[in-house]
Specification:
Blueprint: H1 16-24, H2 28-41, H3 45-55
Helix pairs in contact: 1-2
Length: about 60
C-alpha cells in the first residue's frame, strides 16, 4: 500500500511536490510545473503548498 509522504530525497523546499510525484509515479518536474501554474493562476498554490508541508508526514 502506498502512502503520501513528503520526499526526503527529491525535495527543493519541503518535499511536497517530490512526495506527490512519487505517490502518483510521475516526474517531479511535471508536478512542480503544475504547482507553479496553479500559483500563478489562482494564487492559492503557495498557501496550499505550505499547508501540505505542515499536514503531510515526512518519509
Amino acid at each position: 500500500m502506498k502512502y503520501l509522504y513528503r520526499s526526503r530525497t527529491n525535495r527543493k523546499i519541503c518535499g511536497v511536490c517530490g512526495g506527490i510525484a512519487e505517490y502518483l509515479e510521475l516526474d517531479p518536474t511535471v508536478i512542480r510545473a503544475l504547482w507553479i501554474l496553479l500559483c500563478c493562476m489562482a494564487g492559492l498554490g503557495v498557501f496550499g503548498y505550505f499547508l501540505l508541508a505542515v499536514i503531510m508526514p515526512s518519509e
